[in-house]
Design a protein that fits this description.
This protein is α+β, with helices and mostly antiparallel strands. The protein contains ten helices and eleven strands. Among the domains are: 55 residues, no CATH class; 171 residues, ph1033 like fold, CATH 3.10.590.
Length: 325
């Protein structure tokens, strides 16, 4: 079943007899037995069947919540395996050294013996219940406008080290109404070069909270603090995003490759990298983008790369989709 799903491009597979449900991620780059995401039994409430089945609703699948939970599950599983290995019958030497540094009165042999008597278990708290789509939004709540698309990541900011300039500029007008100044959202491509990969470029620049544009780059003379930008690694997918923290100034950035070609620099903050889980712009995702749906572009055909051939304006909706927000 998983083999057929992979061949057909189907990521999530559910096997059920009506009572037991097993959910698999067929695209996960792990052995088959590790593709199992969750197993629940409707008749056994301890397995929290409502939460898991809610993930399979049309609304939740469209929001890709299950992808975020899989990522957490995948990370937690690896951490648990590493910890169980450290506290096994043969304790990890680094753990012994760490404990001895904290309790120097104990000899290494005593520490190993004590760890041998220890029975440690590791568990990760269950994922919070999925919001119920049927719950009404309070009337006083204003419509969401994404004035700051990175607010969630500010709770745990990431620092990075290298971003590569985009390939070509476009002249398409921004999607905001004349006379208004809603946040601007941009997507900009980064490609591998002979000297360094796109990842190295992104980590180098974004890691120092800066990015660079050329003289003709779309949005260069319009961006300001609070705008959003995401980065498309050519042939891979969207792999990073950030909040723009300043207007672009014509100033040299000494550590930027080809600084003469990209003389305009601006500050960024709240950088997020997801190189290991890129947002792939496939047909399914393009069918959710207003750039295709509302403008009549062919989202299934092979000629869709106009979207990522140069820096381009995005709607707030499309930016949220491309950055999983």
């Amino acid at each position: 079943m998983l083999g057929y799903a992979m061949a057909a491009g189907v990521e999530w597979v559910v096997l059920t007899d009506g009572n037991e449900y097993r959910i698999y991620n067929s695209h996960a780059a792990v052995p088959v037995e590790q593709k199992l995401f969750r197993r629940i039994v409707v008749a056994d409430q301890s397995t929290r069947p409502q939460e898991t089945l809610a993930l399979l609703s049309k609304a939740q699948m469209a929001d890709h919540l299950i992808d975020e939970l899989w990522k957490a599950h995948f990370i937690d599983r690896q951490i648990r395996a590493a910890l169980e290995g450290m506290f096994g019958t043969e304790p990890d030497p680094s753990l012994v050294r760490l404990i001895r540094s904290r309790v120097p009165a104990l000899a290494p042999g005593e520490i190993r013996a004590g760890l041998g008597r220890l029975r440690a278990t590791f568990d990760f708290p269950g994922v919070p219940a999925v919001p119920r789509p049927s719950e009404p939004t309070p009337a006083a709540t204003p419509p969401r406008s994404l004035p700051d698309p990175m607010a969630a990541s500010r709770r745990s900011p990431l620092r990075v080290t290298d971003v590569g300039p985009e390939v070509v500029a476009t002249t398409e007008a921004p999607p905001s109404q004349p006379g208004s100044r809603d946040p601007i959202f941009l997507i900009t491509p980064v490609k591998d070069e002979a000297e360094e990969t796109a990842r190295q470029t992104l980590e180098s620049l974004l890691g120092q909270n800066v990015y660079v544009f050329g003289d003709r780059t779309t949005g260069r003379d319009r961006i300001e603090e609070g705008d959003g930008i995401c980065f498309y690694w050519s042939g891979v997918g969207v792999v990073a995003d950030a909040v723009i923290a300043s207007a672009a100034d014509r100033r040299g950035v000494g550590f930027a490759r080809d600084g003469a070609r990209y003389p305009w620099a601006f500050a960024v903050r709240d950088v997020r990298f997801y190189f290991d889980a890129p947002v792939v712009i496939d047909g399914a995702l393009r069918s959710r983008l207003e750039a295709f749906v509302k403008r009549g572009h062919d989202r299934e055909g092979p000629h869709w790369s106009w979207l990522v051939q140069g820096t381009r304006y995005l709607t707030a909706h499309d930016f949220a989709v491309l950055t999983r927000r």
